[in-house]
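Q: I'm a student working through a structural biology exercise. My instructor gave each of us a protein and asked us to get a predicted structure, then write a short paragraph describing it. Mine is Glycine reductase. I'm not confident about reading structure output yet, so if you can add a plain explanation after the tokens, that would really help. Here is the sequence I was given:
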Amino acid sequence: MVKEIERYGIPIVHMATITTISESVGANRIVPTVAIPHPVGNPKLNAEDEHALRRTLVKKALDALATEVTEPTHFE
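A: Happy to help. First, here is the predicted structure for Glycine reductase. I'll explain a few features afterward.
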């Protein structure tokens, strides 16, 4: 589905814990996340630190959207 959406000119960011799966489905912009049960969060953190973590991941995803890529690229 990722490739089909990008084919229409809409950039997609795939945020995933297992980035090899992202590559196998054809994602070009990949943002590695935290853990399988909590990909964009960490319930062990206090509320303020978890908010900062989530904000960082979303910022990476937005930066990835603004970046031209021609092949699968990981945004660390």
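A: Here are two points you could use in your paragraph. Helices lie at 2-7, 19-24, 47-65. Residues 2-74 form one domain. It's a good idea to check both against the output above yourself.
Q: Great, thank you!
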